[in-house]
Records
---
Amino acid sequence: MSIKRKDFLGLYNTDREEIVSILNTAESMKEIFTRTVKKVPTLRGKTIVNLFFEPSTRTKSSFSLAAKRLSADVMSVSKKMSSVQKGESLLDTAKTMEAMGADVVVVRHGSPGAVEFLAEQLSARVLNAGDGAHAHPTQALLDLYTIKENLGQIEGLKILIVGDITHSRVARSNIWGLNHLGAEVRVVGPNTLLPVEIEKMGVEKYTDLDQALSDVDVINILRIQLERQKSGLFPSINEYIKFYGFHEERLMQVDDEVLIMHPGPMNRGIEIDSEVADGKQSVITEQVTNGVAVRMALLYLLAGGNPEDAEIT
Ligand code: CP
């Protein structure tokens, strides 16, 4: 089993068959979590580098843990603690890690296209861990996995993504992935946070949350990037909470089976209240767990480990 391309940059150029294959591999990886020793020798001798030029809690730790569970050697470089502070370029930093024998370089960067640029320049395989507002494919894959695990399928489901769609790599990647798998995708938010012609991505656009909630199966609530309020894209946090915030009362409008998702980090009390985030419909912590399985699957498929070593069925 392997992936069709050298690098894994986004779901925009990944077809349905590849997505299904990654999700199936992730399912086998998740079985490893139930063992006493949660580690297999699949990527023994391979080197994975985490190159993070933007803050991250979930994605960075998840990639590190995924690589360790597959027995790879793992190195991490962050912008703040590296020679980037002394003026070294992104490319020189990446090439330095490649020279130490990196097989896969996992990159997060604030600029859209930075990961694609590195993929063109490096012989090592490159995996996108989030680039600007462009793409965050592993987040979307773990979201797809979590939906399928809880609801048994993705095709035909109505998925609502709420909030700042314009600046969200999570929204864009989810839309690509969900469309490939046959879901009906809706987006809702203030007009100023919805991209012009977003419908061309194959989604239904709403500004009224009550209308958008009708008959949904999954609600994926995005983090409000608080700096957007300062730049005038919505008048006040209180107004956002009133029209788009998820509190217990809002949840009464939907069925008890509707899944509540959030990619994290959460602004509790703004886009989501604690009663909703920690409530029985929330699968937010499951998303985090599944993130490790999905990243194990991708590292395995990209780094070309020995399937016999995988001890996965
Ligand atoms: N969801 C997500 O990408 O979180 P981090 O920024 O903590 O990695």
Note: The CA atoms of residues 110 and 132 lie 4 Å apart.
---
Amino acid sequence: MNLLIHTAGAPKRLRLRDGARLCGLVLGVMVAAAMLPACTGVQPPAAYGPCPTAAQLAWQRMETNMFCHFGPNTFSGLEWGEGTEPEDLFNPTDLDCVQWCAVAQGAGMKGVIITAKHHDGFCLWPNPVSSHTVRESSWRDGKGDVLRDLSDACRQYGLGFGVYISPWDRHAPDYGTPHYNLTFRQTLEDALSHYGPVFEQWFDGANGEGPEGRRQQYDWTLFNTTVAALQPHAVIFSDVGPGCRWVGNEQGRGGVTCWSRLSTQGFAPGAEAPGAAVLGSGQSDGQCWLPAEADVSLHDGWFYHPQQQTKSLQRLLSIYYSSVGRNALLLLNVPPDRRGRITEADSVRLMEFRRALDTIFACDLAQESRVTASGQLGGGGCRRYAADNVLDTAYHTYWAVADTHLQPTLTLHLREAVAFNRVMLQEYIPLGQRVAHFAVQVTDTNGAWRTVAQGTTIGYKRILLLPDMRADAVRICFDGCLAAPVINRVALYYDAIYRPEEGERQ
Ligand code: FUL
């Protein structure tokens, strides 16, 4: 660490790197200290309520993923194909899934989910139980397979590969009969058996009419068990999970209160799902761990349409803050065009989005603060649960208090007064979601504390949008907790790029 760079005019980047090195040191000391007898006999906090599986935790930590709506609709201009489209309609002139993955990776996304079969029933892979697939088209002489290209490209780029497979099928001749559930199971089996690990299976709850106006009674238990048997680590999305839930809107907006818990007993995807407000907020006493996924398109529609505009950078940042910043995962749809490529305009906008996020979150202004708390599990000598664990970026280190201490406070004494307008908080969700209300207070030279924001849930990640302010110290009062909070990160940032609309703060 070169202390000479800590001059008033030093660029923030230098400070960050220095801070990161400092974090390394802190972490080393912490690991060593964790072995000290001071923690002997101190039991770690017990898990509270339902908690994420390893797959759900890994999924949540992806934070942003790319959705690709691609199929006959790309060529017809429809959003919902009729199911009667000739297979030859699907004819990308230059399909390049490597380019999709390069764009996704450049945009900081961690996975890609493809519409392997949308409501029109057309399969982007040669599904043996369908006659409405790429195999029946003249694209690549019927030898093409989009799932093959994309799964290979995802592997090459270290991205997760996920599939959207619509149960609603406007083409399948047996749709609307009990037999269709078996056909759909075989469809799932084929799509999930040949392309390597699948990180997410996306089930659309839509249940419209099939041939001759017939409707289907979906066998969700059969569908979910089929996925679980073939891809045990896949997180299953639907309105009500079982792996993650729909956030209740297609604008990419999580609830200001957003619990990763929901009771799903008696509910089903589609018309039998809980209302949008409940999906958005989750339930503090929900029986299942069911985090929210916020899906939204970079365009107005889900599929490519030549005239559609790309959302602005400001809009994307607003979406980011109201999804990832509110404890939801952001699934951003980027529709490939008729060549089978992501358009230049979309790609440029996504890189701008990434650059903006990297800039905003480059420098944690709390990094060098002294951290104190109203309590700490195991007492001051037990570094394993120390308050300053909230500063390091290691995921599995956290600050914890005794389980009877339900209203603790944590204070960041800043090295010097800093200007900031974002507060980022993270609960250590492997032990459950606990915080139901908190306040952010600041103080400056006169020493009086002033509340500048209040919030309800935190969960995996919460980012509060505050007006520009300057403080010597920042205090978080966890004043409404279902169980003693376990916090693994508190950070302060200054965002000079996104300007929230009036009333949009927090
Ligand atoms: C909806 C579908 O009907 C849309 O076409 C789109 O796929 C969206 C993500 O889900 O339910």
Note: The first strand starts at residue 64 and ends at 68.
